[in-house]
Write a structure and sequence with these properties.
Structural class: alpha/beta
Number of helices: 19
Distance between the termini: 91 Å
CATH architecture of the largest domain: 3-Layer(aba) Sandwich
CATH topology of the largest domain: Rossmann fold
Number of domains: 3
Radius of gyration: 33 Å
Helix content: 40-55%
Largest sheet: 5 strands, parallel
Shape: extended
CATH class of the largest domain: Alpha Beta
CATH superfamily of the largest domain: P-loop containing nucleotide triphosphate hydrolases
Strand content: 5-15%
Number of strands: 14
Protein backbone atom coordinates (compact mmCIF):
# COMPACT_ATOMS: atom_id res chain seq x y z
CA UNK A 1 0.00 0.00 0.00
CA UNK A 2 1.20 3.50 -0.83
CA UNK A 3 2.48 5.53 2.12
CA UNK A 4 0.19 8.10 3.74
CA UNK A 5 3.08 10.57 3.36
CA UNK A 6 2.26 11.24 -0.33
CA UNK A 7 2.08 15.02 -0.66
CA UNK A 8 -0.82 16.72 -2.46
CA UNK A 9 -0.22 16.98 -6.18
CA UNK A 10 -1.65 18.79 -9.18
CA UNK A 11 -3.26 16.21 -11.48
CA UNK A 12 -4.82 16.48 -14.96
CA UNK A 13 -7.50 14.12 -16.28
CA UNK A 14 -7.98 14.06 -20.08
CA UNK A 15 -11.18 12.17 -20.94
CA UNK A 16 -14.25 12.94 -23.02
CA UNK A 17 -16.60 11.19 -20.58
CA UNK A 18 -17.83 13.69 -17.96
CA UNK A 19 -18.69 10.89 -15.52
CA UNK A 20 -15.06 9.68 -15.59
CA UNK A 21 -13.73 13.18 -15.15
CA UNK A 22 -16.07 13.98 -12.29
CA UNK A 23 -15.44 10.65 -10.59
CA UNK A 24 -11.65 11.02 -10.76
CA UNK A 25 -11.84 14.60 -9.48
CA UNK A 26 -14.06 13.61 -6.55
CA UNK A 27 -11.94 10.62 -5.47
CA UNK A 28 -8.54 12.34 -5.85
CA UNK A 29 -9.65 15.62 -4.28
CA UNK A 30 -10.69 13.67 -1.19
CA UNK A 31 -7.02 12.62 -0.91
CA UNK A 32 -5.94 16.27 -0.94
CA UNK A 33 -4.92 16.52 -4.59
CA UNK A 34 -5.86 19.33 -6.98
CA UNK A 35 -7.53 17.98 -10.13
CA UNK A 36 -8.22 19.66 -13.49
CA UNK A 37 -10.15 17.98 -16.31
CA UNK A 38 -10.22 18.35 -20.10
CA UNK A 39 -12.52 16.69 -22.64
CA UNK A 40 -10.30 16.90 -25.74
CA UNK A 41 -6.70 16.23 -26.63
CA UNK A 42 -6.14 19.82 -27.76
CA UNK A 43 -7.46 21.27 -24.49
CA UNK A 44 -5.38 18.75 -22.59
CA UNK A 45 -2.11 19.72 -24.33
CA UNK A 46 -2.82 23.42 -23.81
CA UNK A 47 -3.45 22.79 -20.10
CA UNK A 48 -0.23 20.78 -19.80
CA UNK A 49 1.78 23.61 -21.37
CA UNK A 50 0.20 26.16 -19.03
CA UNK A 51 0.53 24.26 -15.77
CA UNK A 52 3.12 22.09 -14.08
CA UNK A 53 1.12 18.92 -13.52
CA UNK A 54 2.75 16.14 -11.54
CA UNK A 55 0.51 13.39 -12.96
CA UNK A 56 -1.66 12.98 -16.05
CA UNK A 57 -4.52 10.48 -16.52
CA UNK A 58 -5.12 10.02 -20.24
CA UNK A 59 -7.97 8.30 -22.05
CA UNK A 60 -6.71 6.51 -25.17
CA UNK A 61 -9.91 7.26 -27.11
CA UNK A 62 -10.58 10.96 -27.57
CA UNK A 63 -12.87 12.75 -30.06
CA UNK A 64 -10.13 14.89 -31.64
CA UNK A 65 -6.93 12.90 -31.13
CA UNK A 66 -5.46 9.43 -30.99
CA UNK A 67 -4.48 8.66 -27.42
CA UNK A 68 -1.20 6.98 -28.44
CA UNK A 69 -0.17 10.02 -30.49
CA UNK A 70 -1.03 12.27 -27.55
CA UNK A 71 0.99 10.04 -25.22
CA UNK A 72 4.00 10.39 -27.52
CA UNK A 73 3.69 14.19 -27.52
CA UNK A 74 3.42 14.24 -23.73
CA UNK A 75 6.56 12.11 -23.45
CA UNK A 76 8.44 14.52 -25.71
CA UNK A 77 7.30 17.71 -23.98
CA UNK A 78 7.03 16.49 -20.36
CA UNK A 79 9.32 13.44 -20.12
CA UNK A 80 9.40 13.47 -16.31
CA UNK A 81 5.63 13.65 -15.82
CA UNK A 82 4.14 10.17 -15.34
CA UNK A 83 1.11 9.29 -17.47
CA UNK A 84 -1.53 6.71 -16.52
CA UNK A 85 -3.57 5.63 -19.53
CA UNK A 86 -7.25 4.71 -19.21
CA UNK A 87 -8.79 2.36 -21.74
CA UNK A 88 -11.92 0.33 -22.18
CA UNK A 89 -11.19 -0.91 -25.71
CA UNK A 90 -8.96 -3.93 -26.31
CA UNK A 91 -7.55 -3.10 -22.90
CA UNK A 92 -4.67 -5.57 -22.72
CA UNK A 93 -3.31 -4.89 -26.21
CA UNK A 94 -3.67 -1.12 -25.86
CA UNK A 95 -2.18 -1.13 -22.37
CA UNK A 96 0.89 -3.06 -23.51
CA UNK A 97 1.40 -0.67 -26.41
CA UNK A 98 1.00 2.33 -24.10
CA UNK A 99 3.52 0.97 -21.61
CA UNK A 100 6.02 0.47 -24.43
CA UNK A 101 5.38 4.06 -25.47
CA UNK A 102 6.36 5.25 -21.98
CA UNK A 103 3.16 5.24 -19.94
CA UNK A 104 3.77 4.65 -16.23
CA UNK A 105 0.69 2.47 -15.68
CA UNK A 106 -2.79 1.78 -17.03
CA UNK A 107 -6.35 1.48 -15.72
CA UNK A 108 -9.00 -0.63 -17.48
CA UNK A 109 -12.46 0.91 -17.42
CA UNK A 110 -14.42 0.55 -15.28
CA UNK A 111 -12.01 0.86 -12.33
CA UNK A 112 -12.71 1.23 -8.63
CA UNK A 113 -11.89 4.18 -6.41
CA UNK A 114 -9.19 2.14 -4.66
CA UNK A 115 -7.60 1.16 -7.99
CA UNK A 116 -7.52 4.82 -9.04
CA UNK A 117 -5.98 6.00 -5.77
CA UNK A 118 -3.41 3.20 -5.69
CA UNK A 119 -2.29 3.82 -9.28
CA UNK A 120 -2.11 7.59 -8.83
CA UNK A 121 -0.15 7.50 -5.58
CA UNK A 122 2.20 4.82 -6.89
CA UNK A 123 3.00 7.08 -9.86
CA UNK A 124 3.48 10.12 -7.61
CA UNK A 125 5.76 8.16 -5.25
CA UNK A 126 7.89 7.00 -8.19
CA UNK A 127 8.10 10.56 -9.54
CA UNK A 128 9.20 11.94 -6.18
CA UNK A 129 11.84 9.21 -5.82
CA UNK A 130 13.19 10.01 -9.28
CA UNK A 131 13.32 13.71 -8.43
CA UNK A 132 15.18 12.98 -5.18
CA UNK A 133 17.72 10.86 -7.06
CA UNK A 134 18.21 13.61 -9.62
CA UNK A 135 18.68 16.14 -6.83
CA UNK A 136 21.29 13.93 -5.17
CA UNK A 137 23.12 13.51 -8.46
CA UNK A 138 23.11 17.29 -8.95
CA UNK A 139 24.51 17.72 -5.43
CA UNK A 140 27.23 15.20 -6.20
CA UNK A 141 28.03 16.94 -9.47
CA UNK A 142 28.14 20.32 -7.77
CA UNK A 143 30.27 18.98 -4.92
CA UNK A 144 32.93 17.69 -7.30
CA UNK A 145 32.41 20.07 -10.18
CA UNK A 146 35.37 22.09 -11.45
CA UNK A 147 33.93 25.13 -9.66
CA UNK A 148 34.86 23.37 -6.42
CA UNK A 149 38.50 23.26 -7.57
CA UNK A 150 39.70 26.80 -7.00
CA UNK A 151 42.10 28.43 -9.40
CA UNK A 152 42.51 30.10 -12.78
CA UNK A 153 46.13 29.25 -13.51
CA UNK A 154 46.64 28.31 -17.20
CA UNK A 155 48.02 24.90 -16.21
CA UNK A 156 44.88 24.23 -14.17
CA UNK A 157 42.55 25.34 -16.97
CA UNK A 158 44.38 23.00 -19.35
CA UNK A 159 43.76 20.11 -16.93
CA UNK A 160 40.04 20.99 -16.81
CA UNK A 161 39.92 20.85 -20.61
CA UNK A 162 41.63 17.44 -20.70
CA UNK A 163 39.29 16.09 -18.02
CA UNK A 164 36.22 17.22 -19.98
CA UNK A 165 37.47 15.17 -22.91
CA UNK A 166 38.56 12.09 -20.96
CA UNK A 167 35.91 11.85 -18.21
CA UNK A 168 33.01 10.58 -20.40
CA UNK A 169 35.17 7.70 -21.67
CA UNK A 170 36.19 4.60 -19.75
CA UNK A 171 39.91 5.20 -20.32
CA UNK A 172 42.27 4.79 -17.38
CA UNK A 173 43.65 8.09 -16.05
CA UNK A 174 46.94 8.53 -14.19
CA UNK A 175 47.15 11.60 -11.94
CA UNK A 176 50.73 12.62 -11.17
CA UNK A 177 51.67 15.28 -8.67
CA UNK A 178 53.22 16.00 -5.29
CA UNK A 179 51.46 15.17 -2.06
CA UNK A 180 48.78 17.73 -1.24
CA UNK A 181 48.02 18.83 -4.82
CA UNK A 182 44.44 17.51 -4.67
CA UNK A 183 44.67 14.28 -6.65
CA UNK A 184 41.62 12.70 -5.00
CA UNK A 185 39.56 15.87 -5.57
CA UNK A 186 40.39 15.70 -9.28
CA UNK A 187 39.56 11.97 -9.34
CA UNK A 188 36.13 12.73 -7.89
CA UNK A 189 35.61 15.46 -10.48
CA UNK A 190 36.42 12.97 -13.23
CA UNK A 191 33.92 10.50 -11.76
CA UNK A 192 31.23 13.18 -11.44
CA UNK A 193 31.62 14.05 -15.14
CA UNK A 194 31.62 10.41 -16.28
CA UNK A 195 28.77 8.15 -17.37
CA UNK A 196 29.38 6.22 -14.13
CA UNK A 197 28.51 9.21 -11.92
CA UNK A 198 25.38 7.54 -10.55
CA UNK A 199 27.41 4.57 -9.31
CA UNK A 200 29.96 4.25 -6.50
CA UNK A 201 33.25 6.11 -6.24
CA UNK A 202 35.64 4.11 -4.06
CA UNK A 203 39.09 5.32 -2.97
CA UNK A 204 41.82 2.89 -1.90
CA UNK A 205 45.11 4.21 -0.50
CA UNK A 206 47.73 1.68 -1.57
CA UNK A 207 50.16 2.95 1.08
CA UNK A 208 48.00 2.14 4.11
CA UNK A 209 47.54 -1.62 3.62
CA UNK A 210 49.96 -4.51 3.64
CA UNK A 211 50.11 -6.43 0.35
CA UNK A 212 47.90 -9.27 1.67
CA UNK A 213 45.29 -6.94 3.19
CA UNK A 214 45.14 -4.80 0.06
CA UNK A 215 44.64 -7.88 -2.11
CA UNK A 216 41.73 -8.98 0.07
CA UNK A 217 40.34 -5.43 0.08
CA UNK A 218 40.41 -5.25 -3.71
CA UNK A 219 39.46 -8.78 -4.72
CA UNK A 220 37.72 -10.16 -1.62
CA UNK A 221 38.36 -13.62 -0.21
CA UNK A 222 36.64 -16.95 0.28
CA UNK A 223 36.02 -18.65 3.59
CA UNK A 224 39.17 -20.32 4.92
CA UNK A 225 41.53 -18.41 2.59
CA UNK A 226 43.65 -17.51 5.62
CA UNK A 227 43.43 -17.47 9.40
CA UNK A 228 40.50 -15.29 10.39
CA UNK A 229 38.64 -15.64 7.07
CA UNK A 230 35.55 -17.13 8.68
CA UNK A 231 33.24 -16.29 5.77
CA UNK A 232 33.29 -15.13 2.17
CA UNK A 233 33.93 -11.41 1.74
CA UNK A 234 33.27 -9.35 -1.38
CA UNK A 235 36.03 -6.97 -2.45
CA UNK A 236 35.92 -3.55 -4.07
CA UNK A 237 35.88 -4.96 -7.60
CA UNK A 238 32.69 -6.83 -6.78
CA UNK A 239 30.91 -4.27 -4.59
CA UNK A 240 31.68 -1.22 -6.76
CA UNK A 241 30.82 -2.90 -10.05
CA UNK A 242 29.86 -0.26 -12.60
CA UNK A 243 31.58 2.51 -10.64
CA UNK A 244 35.01 4.10 -10.34
CA UNK A 245 38.01 2.91 -8.30
CA UNK A 246 40.59 5.51 -7.29
CA UNK A 247 43.94 3.85 -6.54
CA UNK A 248 46.01 6.41 -4.63
CA UNK A 249 49.81 6.04 -4.35
CA UNK A 250 50.07 3.14 -6.83
CA UNK A 251 53.87 3.26 -6.50
CA UNK A 252 53.41 1.31 -3.25
CA UNK A 253 51.75 -1.69 -4.93
CA UNK A 254 53.66 -4.95 -4.80
CA UNK A 255 54.77 -6.50 -8.09
CA UNK A 256 52.35 -9.40 -7.48
CA UNK A 257 49.29 -7.16 -7.04
CA UNK A 258 50.37 -5.09 -10.03
CA UNK A 259 50.13 -8.25 -12.13
CA UNK A 260 46.68 -9.10 -10.79
CA UNK A 261 45.43 -5.58 -11.39
CA UNK A 262 46.80 -5.72 -14.92
CA UNK A 263 44.67 -8.82 -15.58
CA UNK A 264 41.58 -7.06 -14.21
CA UNK A 265 42.17 -4.06 -16.46
CA UNK A 266 42.78 -6.15 -19.57
CA UNK A 267 40.21 -8.95 -19.10
CA UNK A 268 37.73 -7.39 -16.66
CA UNK A 269 37.97 -10.43 -14.38
CA UNK A 270 39.53 -11.24 -10.99
CA UNK A 271 39.90 -14.11 -8.57
CA UNK A 272 39.15 -13.69 -4.83
CA UNK A 273 41.94 -14.60 -2.42
CA UNK A 274 41.77 -18.37 -1.93
CA UNK A 275 39.20 -18.73 -4.68
CA UNK A 276 39.41 -20.95 -7.76
CA UNK A 277 36.85 -19.25 -10.00
CA UNK A 278 37.29 -15.94 -11.81
CA UNK A 279 34.56 -13.32 -11.42
CA UNK A 280 33.63 -10.63 -13.92
CA UNK A 281 33.72 -6.94 -13.08
CA UNK A 282 33.10 -3.60 -14.78
CA UNK A 283 34.98 -0.81 -13.08
CA UNK A 284 36.94 2.22 -14.19
CA UNK A 285 40.34 2.87 -12.63
CA UNK A 286 41.84 6.26 -11.87
CA UNK A 287 45.34 5.97 -10.43
CA UNK A 288 47.53 8.53 -8.67
CA UNK A 289 51.14 8.79 -7.61
CA UNK A 290 53.59 11.32 -6.20
CA UNK A 291 56.60 9.31 -7.39
CA UNK A 292 58.35 8.94 -10.75
CA UNK A 293 57.06 5.57 -11.97
CA UNK A 294 59.63 5.42 -14.78
CA UNK A 295 62.40 5.60 -12.18
CA UNK A 296 60.71 2.75 -10.29
CA UNK A 297 60.56 0.71 -13.51
CA UNK A 298 64.30 1.17 -13.98
CA UNK A 299 64.81 0.11 -10.37
CA UNK A 300 62.74 -3.04 -10.95
CA UNK A 301 60.02 -2.00 -8.50
CA UNK A 302 57.24 -1.30 -10.99
CA UNK A 303 56.04 -3.31 -13.98
CA UNK A 304 56.43 -1.51 -17.29
CA UNK A 305 53.35 -3.23 -18.79
CA UNK A 306 51.26 -2.13 -15.80
CA UNK A 307 52.59 1.42 -16.15
CA UNK A 308 51.62 1.62 -19.81
CA UNK A 309 48.16 0.27 -18.95
CA UNK A 310 47.73 2.99 -16.30
CA UNK A 311 49.25 5.78 -18.37
CA UNK A 312 46.54 5.96 -21.04
CA UNK A 313 45.57 9.53 -20.11
CA UNK A 314 48.33 11.07 -17.94
CA UNK A 315 47.51 14.30 -16.09
CA UNK A 316 50.16 16.29 -14.22
CA UNK A 317 48.88 18.35 -11.29
CA UNK A 318 51.26 21.27 -10.71
CA UNK A 319 52.50 22.05 -7.19
CA UNK A 320 51.25 25.24 -5.58
CA UNK A 321 54.61 26.97 -6.05
CA UNK A 322 54.04 26.72 -9.83
CA UNK A 323 50.62 28.38 -9.61
CA UNK A 324 51.24 31.15 -7.07
CA UNK A 325 48.69 33.34 -8.83
CA UNK A 326 46.04 31.01 -7.36
CA UNK A 327 47.25 31.37 -3.75
CA UNK A 328 45.05 34.42 -2.91
CA UNK A 329 41.95 32.71 -4.35
CA UNK A 330 42.67 29.53 -2.41
CA UNK A 331 43.44 31.41 0.80
CA UNK A 332 40.15 33.34 0.67
CA UNK A 333 38.27 30.17 -0.35
CA UNK A 334 39.50 28.34 2.76
CA UNK A 335 38.97 31.45 4.89
CA UNK A 336 35.27 31.54 3.93
CA UNK A 337 34.85 27.83 4.59
CA UNK A 338 36.43 27.86 8.05
CA UNK A 339 34.77 31.12 9.12
CA UNK A 340 31.42 29.56 8.26
CA UNK A 341 32.20 26.24 9.96
CA UNK A 342 33.69 27.78 13.10
CA UNK A 343 31.28 30.70 13.30
CA UNK A 344 33.78 33.55 13.07
CA UNK A 345 33.70 36.75 11.04
CA UNK A 346 37.10 37.56 9.55
CA UNK A 347 37.17 40.01 6.64
CA UNK A 348 40.39 38.86 4.99
CA UNK A 349 44.19 39.19 4.93
CA UNK A 350 46.30 42.32 5.25
CA UNK A 351 48.40 43.16 2.17
CA UNK A 352 51.70 42.07 3.72
CA UNK A 353 50.16 38.83 5.04
CA UNK A 354 48.83 37.98 1.59
CA UNK A 355 52.19 38.85 0.12
CA UNK A 356 53.89 36.38 2.47
CA UNK A 357 51.41 33.66 1.50
CA UNK A 358 52.15 34.25 -2.17
CA UNK A 359 55.91 34.20 -1.78
CA UNK A 360 56.09 31.08 0.39
CA UNK A 361 56.94 27.88 -1.55
CA UNK A 362 54.32 25.63 0.15
CA UNK A 363 56.14 22.27 0.19
CA UNK A 364 52.91 20.70 1.46
CA UNK A 365 50.95 22.33 -1.37
CA UNK A 366 47.20 23.04 -1.09
CA UNK A 367 46.79 20.77 1.93
CA UNK A 368 49.37 22.81 3.86
CA UNK A 369 47.78 26.13 2.88
CA UNK A 370 44.38 24.82 3.97
CA UNK A 371 45.75 23.74 7.35
CA UNK A 372 47.48 27.10 7.91
CA UNK A 373 44.29 29.05 7.16
CA UNK A 374 42.24 26.77 9.43
CA UNK A 375 44.72 27.28 12.26
CA UNK A 376 44.65 31.05 11.74
CA UNK A 377 40.85 31.18 11.85
CA UNK A 378 40.76 29.12 15.05
CA UNK A 379 43.45 31.01 16.96
CA UNK A 380 43.15 34.60 15.70
CA UNK A 381 40.86 37.09 17.46
CA UNK A 382 41.01 40.03 15.03
CA UNK A 383 38.78 40.71 12.05
CA UNK A 384 41.74 40.82 9.63
CA UNK A 385 44.56 38.26 9.43
CA UNK A 386 47.77 40.28 9.71
CA UNK A 387 51.40 39.63 8.90
CA UNK A 388 52.05 39.16 12.64
CA UNK A 389 49.29 36.51 12.85
CA UNK A 390 50.80 34.67 9.92
CA UNK A 391 54.35 34.90 11.23
CA UNK A 392 53.19 33.53 14.56
CA UNK A 393 51.62 30.45 12.97
CA UNK A 394 54.04 29.84 10.11
CA UNK A 395 57.34 30.79 11.72
CA UNK A 396 58.47 27.33 12.74
CA UNK A 397 57.21 25.89 9.46
CA UNK A 398 59.35 28.08 7.23
CA UNK A 399 63.07 27.54 6.97
CA UNK A 400 63.51 31.07 5.60
CA UNK A 401 62.20 32.45 8.89
CA UNK A 402 64.75 30.84 11.16
CA UNK A 403 64.44 28.17 13.80
CA UNK A 404 62.61 29.88 16.63
CA UNK A 405 59.63 32.10 17.31
CA UNK A 406 60.49 35.72 18.24
CA UNK A 407 60.42 36.38 21.96
CA UNK A 408 60.09 40.15 21.94
CA UNK A 409 58.39 42.83 19.85
CA UNK A 410 61.78 44.01 18.56
CA UNK A 411 62.64 40.48 17.42
CA UNK A 412 59.24 40.21 15.75
CA UNK A 413 59.81 43.47 13.88
CA UNK A 414 63.28 42.32 12.83
CA UNK A 415 61.86 39.04 11.58
CA UNK A 416 59.17 40.89 9.61
CA UNK A 417 61.79 43.17 8.06
CA UNK A 418 63.92 40.19 7.08
CA UNK A 419 61.05 38.34 5.45
CA UNK A 420 59.77 41.42 3.62
CA UNK A 421 63.22 42.34 2.34
CA UNK A 422 63.75 38.83 1.03
CA UNK A 423 60.38 38.23 -0.61
CA UNK A 424 59.08 41.70 -1.43
CA UNK A 425 62.14 42.49 -3.54
CA UNK A 426 61.14 39.84 -6.09
CA UNK A 427 57.63 41.26 -6.41
CA UNK A 428 58.98 44.81 -6.69
CA UNK A 429 61.42 43.85 -9.44
CA UNK A 430 58.73 41.95 -11.36
CA UNK A 431 56.44 44.99 -11.02
CA UNK A 432 59.09 47.27 -12.59
CA UNK A 433 59.88 44.86 -15.42
CA UNK A 434 56.21 44.43 -16.27
CA UNK A 435 55.66 48.19 -16.37
CA UNK A 436 58.75 48.77 -18.55
CA UNK A 437 57.78 45.98 -20.90
CA UNK A 438 54.24 47.38 -21.29
CA UNK A 439 55.67 50.84 -22.00
CA UNK A 440 58.23 49.59 -24.50
CA UNK A 441 61.13 50.70 -22.30
CA UNK A 442 59.88 54.27 -21.93
CA UNK A 443 60.53 55.10 -18.27
CA UNK A 444 58.25 58.15 -18.18
CA UNK A 445 55.32 56.24 -19.66
CA UNK A 446 55.98 53.26 -17.36
CA UNK A 447 55.92 55.55 -14.32
CA UNK A 448 52.69 57.21 -15.47
CA UNK A 449 51.04 53.84 -16.08
CA UNK A 450 51.78 52.75 -12.51
CA UNK A 451 50.89 56.07 -10.91
CA UNK A 452 54.42 56.78 -9.70
CA UNK A 453 56.69 59.80 -10.00
CA UNK A 454 59.39 59.29 -12.66
CA UNK A 455 62.14 59.98 -10.13
CA UNK A 456 60.84 57.37 -7.71
CA UNK A 457 60.44 54.86 -10.54
CA UNK A 458 64.04 55.47 -11.67
CA UNK A 459 65.31 55.07 -8.10
CA UNK A 460 63.65 51.66 -7.86
CA UNK A 461 65.14 50.69 -11.22
CA UNK A 462 68.65 51.50 -9.97
CA UNK A 463 67.96 49.58 -6.76
CA UNK A 464 67.22 46.43 -8.79
CA UNK A 465 69.82 47.02 -11.49
CA UNK A 466 67.30 47.43 -14.31
CA UNK A 467 67.78 49.23 -17.62
CA UNK A 468 65.25 50.65 -20.06
CA UNK A 469 65.08 47.24 -21.73
CA UNK A 470 63.60 45.86 -18.49
CA UNK A 471 65.22 42.51 -19.22
CA UNK A 472 68.90 43.48 -19.19
CA UNK A 473 70.57 44.63 -15.96
CA UNK A 474 72.05 48.13 -15.99
CA UNK A 475 75.82 48.40 -16.29
Amino acid sequence: MISDAIKPAQILVIDDEPVICDGCRLVLCEKGHTVDTCGTGQDGMEAVRRNGYELILLDLKLPDADGMDLLKRLQEEKPRTPVIVMTGFSSVQNAVAAMKQGAFDYLSKPFSDDQLVFAAEKALAAKRLTEENLALRKQLYAMFDFSNIVGENPQLLQIFDEIRKAAPTDSTILLQGESGTGKELFAKAIHAHSKRSSRQFVAADCSTFSASLLESELFGHVKGAYTGAVSDKAGIFEMAKGGTLFLDEVANLSIEIQGKLLRVMELQEFKPVGGSVYKKTDIRIIAATNQDLKELIRAGRFRDDFFYRLNVVPLYLPPLRERKDDVPKLAYHFLRIFCRDIGKRIEGFSDDALELLIQYDWPGNIRQLKNVVERLVILTDGDVLSFEDLIDHMYTKTRSMGNSVPGTVDELKAAKKKVVEKHYARIEKAFLMKALSAAGGNITEAANRTGMQRSNFSTLMKKHGLSRDSEKPAS
